Request: fold
Amino acid sequence: MAVVEIPYKPRDLQRTVHDSLQRWNVIVCHRRFGKTVFAINELIKSAVMCKLLMPRLAYLCPTYKQAKTVAWDYLKLYSQVIPGTSTNEAELRIDYPNGARIQLFGCDNPDALRGIYLDGVVLDEYSQMPQNLFPEVIRPALSDREGWAVFIGTPKGRNAFYELYTKAQNNVNWFTAMYRASETGIVNENELKDAQEIMSQDEYAQEYECSWSAAIKGAIYAKEVEAARKQKRHCFVPIEPMLQVHTFWDLGISDATSIWFAQATGKEIRLINYYENTGEGMAHYINYVKDYCRDNNLRMGIHYAPHDIEVRELTTGKSRKESAREMGLQFQTVKLHKVSDGIEAVRRIFSRCWFDQEATAFGFDCLSLYRREYDEKRKVFRDNPLHDYTSHCSDAFRTMAMAWSDRLVEGTRPQGTVLVNKFNPMARRN
Reply:
């Protein structure tokens, strides 16, 4: 048997994590901890030692470009000493002599992950990934061979990563760990002091001290989201059958279509549901809306969409608005507006919004993470928002804000209806 020595000498804490891993793992760590090097070497070890036929392992980043930039060179470096490996630059994958394969993926193309099986996966910077990616795509891929998963990264607010870490701490089937720079000693004290002088308090707390509550750098609705949390408007919101439910859309073709469901009474805007999906036709979303209203005994109100719903398709000669009408959903078009005007409209109505903590969890996380692009060369934030998985949800929310701004939506309490304990946590959904 040939002995192959990989040029990786783990730090003490990295070795501790390697030795402590279970099937499910959440690791929160500060910048420069060495999480990518750790993750790549764990994948390589699992690939070459797996006893199953044709092992398949994956490393995921929020974007494909990020995966290539962050991890590809490491994967090639630590794999090249293994005789018989082959490298595929185009697909960012390495095949090993035992039939194993490690491939890099980005969450900006989730369809590339559908239909595959996995023996192990690392989700790097999970706080920046779509919340539905793991349960809908990755978890089924791990089922056949009982594969493992490592969620790893730095906090980006109290989003799905925070919830996962919190729940995992109380589960004996999960390994959890948090490593702060002030405790690990990996980054020397002088460097940490220098970072504190240059970075804002929130930036330093988030990046080096793993703070869940620090404001997200460049977050567009940071103040509004924080106010909603403090005022407990992110809570249980009961569905009121006497109120109509309005929907507000962002239409995708090659990317996500997003829908917010809202009930209006007086000045209150109650967000009772959020839904998005990719790769589906208009009929799928229309059926979802109809089924949701039927299952919850709700009366449909008005459906609002951005101006592109009126663009005619070359194949049919019809607009999606006309096609939707034929399928039983009548849309009202929200006029074209500047993104900056839509953002201001969102800020104006945010204090009136109540978000159901369960049904709109993913949507609320997207709003909290929606942020401006950062110009690395000039070290400033650009005016335009970053286009990532949070964009579709936030665009649909802008549709809602502009509809209210243009007085297209009226929220009135039905005559004779009295709402008592409207946010009673003991209430039940229909």
Observations:
- The chain is about 35% helix and 20% strand.
